[in-house]
Amino acid sequence: MMSEQTRATPLTEMYSLGARRFGSARWSGMYMQLAAEWQKQQVRPLSAAELLENFTWATCMQAWGPETAHGADKHCTRKVAGVIIWHGDRMALQERLTGACGFAPSTGHLEASEDAREAVIREAYEEMGITLTNCLLMATGRRFERCKRYGSDYHDWSVFEAYVESDVLELNPDEAKQIAWYEPYQVLELARRTEEYLHQCVSEEDWRARPGIEVVWYWWMRELGVLSRLAQFCGAQIAESQMQSMCLHWGERETANNPEERV
């Protein structure tokens, strides 16, 4: 029988059970934060069983904030779906609060009971407040990337595209810092920022302070020709603007040359 001095404390028991559940590297930092907070406040800790039984995403959010919470209680399914949503030629983007740094379309892991199309419809509503009725599959493929959840360094992607009539967006403060419709030139500016980052022309600190398109989405947009389409949009808009300026200019000259047409 163990003595009182050698018996496992709730904190050590919690560390052991948590490390087995979440992985020792991920759990260690969270455990240390929690233990320090308990000691500072002199609060009797829950038993390990009580803590882990009720260790939900919501309680993680309250204890450690969204960055840690997102990964703590969820293992990666290795299946991800995202959807590029258009309103005319504008694209809906959100600056991510958790996970990879950058601006991105609606994206998320597939839940156990859903397929990729169901996942993007759910994520679009949860992240952006957009109700999708129809979306087109553009591509599938594997991308090797570090997941914010525990247990994976790659994802099998399904990328969709959708058009909506309403331009109403709803920010989910648990998911994003900001959300908006971006004009083609604005998306291209964000893409150029990502290119600078990939060419190591932007420091990690500067990137986090002012990111571009999330790296994995930059590669998808480039591979699927989305960036080329946006450049064509910009070219058409510039050409139209120049044509309007020329018409106005020639109209003014004709009026100047024909005094009888002046008002």
The CATH architecture of the domain at 79-184 is: Alpha-Beta Complex
Return Rg in Å: 25 Å
- Give the amount of beta strand, in percent: 15-25%
What is the straight-line distance between the termini? Answer: 107 Å
- Indicate the percent of residues in helices: 40-55%
Structural class determined from secondary elements: alpha+beta
CATH superfamily of the domain at 79-184: Nucleoside Triphosphate Pyrophosphohydrolase
Oligomer: single chain
Order of helices and strands: HHHHHEEEEHEEEHHHH
User: What count of helical segments does DSSP give?
Assistant: 10
For the record, the CATH class of the domain at 79-184 is Alpha Beta
Write a structural description.
It is globular, with a radius of gyration of 25 Å. A hairpin with a 6-residue loop joins strand 2 and strand 3 (103-104). It is 48% helix and 18% strand. It has helices at residues 10-22, 24-41, 48-53, 57-64, 66-72, 116-128, 184-198, 204-209, 215-223, 226-257, and strands at residues 79-87, 90-96, 103-104, 106-109, 136-144, 154-163, 176-182. Among the domains are: 10-55, no CATH class; 79-184, Nucleoside Triphosphate Pyrophosphohydrolase. It has 10 helices and 7 strands. It is α+β, with helices and mostly antiparallel strands. The N and C termini lie far apart (107 Å). Strands 1, 2, 3, 4, 5, 6 and 7 form a 7-stranded mixed β-sheet that branches.
